[in-house]
Specification:
heterodimer; A: 111 residues; mainly beta; 4-stranded antiparallel beta sheet; 0% helix; globular; B: 113 residues; 6-stranded mixed beta sheet; 12 strands
């Protein structure tokens, strides 16, 4: 157990639907990062939050949004899902950017 | 724009061989960070190292070592005396000071017993 918890582990949903992925960072880590890994696009950085505030934005689609709550857990919301959104979504947390701990990922399948 | 190139798609070695994974990057930023990650067959991602652009000192951690050369925009990763457990996909990544990261396509390393 890395200390970073992602739920759910697997998600199957239909096109056009909306899903929420959750990430609980390691205790004491203020930063949360979201990544997408797909066969087509490879690994992509989506977004970073630090202590509740957005810090950096990567290749995140407008249909996607994220937030970090006061208890530091983060949620990634994916809406109007398309087949191409099928991917493994990872979150990671860090305390000082010298070490990053990843969750086991959420595998999203859009059918 | 920034780019990370891992020219070696797949590498296969026999256990105990040394192996070097290449990473070449492009960026216009003067401050940036370079990373290596490991993704074993089980699928999780493991952070290995982060270096900033002002620190060209080579780093060694056990059997792992990293060679950062700004002159050639390279950040290569060497595994000494490889083991079967080193079999994984290895990703090199570049992050700007603004925090946006770009990943290479990964190198699949297979270490045969």
């Amino acid at each position: 157990d890395s200390g970073v918890t992602q739920t759910p582990k697997h998600l199957i949903t239909a096109t056009g639907q909306r899903v929420t992925l959750r990430c609980s960072p390691r205790s004491g880590d203020l930063s949360v990062y979201w990544y997408q890994q797909s066969l087509d696009q490879g690994l992509q950085f989506l977004i970073q939050y630090y202590n509740g505030e957005e810090r950096a934005k990567g290749n995140i689609l407008e249909r996607f949004s994220a937030q970090q709550f006061p208890d530091l857990h983060s949620e990634l919301n994916l809406s109007s899902l398309e087949l191409g959104d099928s991917a493994l979504y990872f979150c990671a947390s860090s305390v000082d950017r010298n070490g990053y701990t990843f969750g086991s990922g959420t595998r999203l399948t859009v059918v | 724009a920034q780019k990370v190139t891992q020219a070696q798609t797949e590498i296969s070695v026999v256990e105990k061989e040394d192996v070097t994974l290449d990473c070449v990057y492009e960026t216009r930023d003067t401050t940036y960070y370079l990373f290596w990650y490991k993704q074993p067959p089980s699928g999780e991602l493991v952070f290995l190292i982060r270096r900033n652009s002002f620190d060209e000192q080579n780093e060694i951690s056990g059997r792992y070592s990293w060679n950062f050369q700004k002159s050639t925009s390279s950040f290569n990763f060497t595994i000494t005396a490889s083991q079967v457990v080193d079999s994984a996909v290895y990703f090199c990544a570049l992050s700007t000071n603004a925090g946006k990261s770009t990943f290479g396509d990964g190198t699949t390393l297979t270490v045969k017993p």
